[in-house]
Amino acid sequence: MSSSIIFKDRQDAGKKLALLLDNYKGTNAIVLALPRGGVIIGKEVAEALNLPLDIIVTRKIGAPGNEEYAIGAIDIHGNGVWNENERAYIDKRWLENKIKEEIREAERRWSTYRKGRGPLELKGKTVIIVDDGIATGLTMQAAVAYAKQTNAKEVVVAVPVASTESVGVLKEVVEVYVIETPVFFSAVGEWYEYFPQVSDQEVVSVLAS
């Protein structure tokens, strides 16, 4: 096992993350997970804390020719958070088309995962947004901005592992619970022994259970 590995899998990470959030157990909080991997984390957290689980859908905008490198992220309505230094060099027509494409994918996921169920009411509630990790933080920033628009009482972020830079930015606007912030951070998956892709069907099954 590599010395960089912290968690066996997402289930293990979710159980450990729940221990950090014990003060929310049995409260009026709601766990909102970012699909797809975050839903596995969210299930463990919600079950351990006896809280309802729902999803929040945001989409990363990757750079042209390098989808893994995030230049921004949007919510399901197209509201975005951007790395403005990178955005300035992106062709506007390309970006407009990319945003439309990702909105369609966000809408598809929303419809697929919910199976006709409406979202939980967030007004006046504490919202705990979870994912399996944070690299740049842009996707999570978009999720936080979306949650704040719902008139939630409080928004907090909880993840097993995150880059120190992303946590620093998020802490300016919300409370952040994180187990590990490695000094050298390249990808979320490197901190897991087993980190498979999560399918749409797995997300549907978790939300239906």
UniProtKB/TrEMBL annotation:
<dbReference type="Pfam" id="PF00156">
    <property type="entry name" value="Pribosyltran"/>
</dbReference>
<protein>
    <submittedName>
        <fullName>Phosphoribosyl transferase</fullName>
    </submittedName>
</protein>
<dbReference type="GO" id="GO:0016740">
    <property type="term" value="F:transferase activity"/>
</dbReference>
<dbReference type="InterPro" id="IPR029057">
    <property type="entry name" value="PRTase-like"/>
</dbReference>
<dbReference type="InterPro" id="IPR000836">
    <property type="entry name" value="PRTase_dom"/>
</dbReference>
<feature type="domain" description="Phosphoribosyltransferase">
    <location>
        <begin position="14"/>
        <end position="172"/>
    </location>
</feature>
<keyword id="KW-0808">Transferase</keyword>
